[in-house]
Amino acid sequence: MSVGQEELITEEDAARYLGVSPERLRELVAQGELHLVPVQGSEGIEVMHLRGEVLRLKEQLGAQEGKTRAEEWPDQISG
Length: 79
Prior knowledge:
Layout: E1 2-3, E2 6-10, H1 11-18, H2 22-30, E3 37-41, E4 44-50, H3 51-72, H4 74-78
Antiparallel strand pairs: 1-2, 2-4, 3-4
């Protein structure tokens, strides 16, 4: 499924790709990190996410995690 040029993915797929629980995914939405896209499905309105936005957030979270690890273990990194 897509909107314009953007591919849509389900909430479950977005959570799995980010490695977070569905509850944490909803927290990220509440914080404005991700946007919801309501889509009319066969069983009513479904909540979807923009795949590109999920990919960008995954990159940001990975960069933050790497920075945190570097700050926690500076002796290990600086030699």
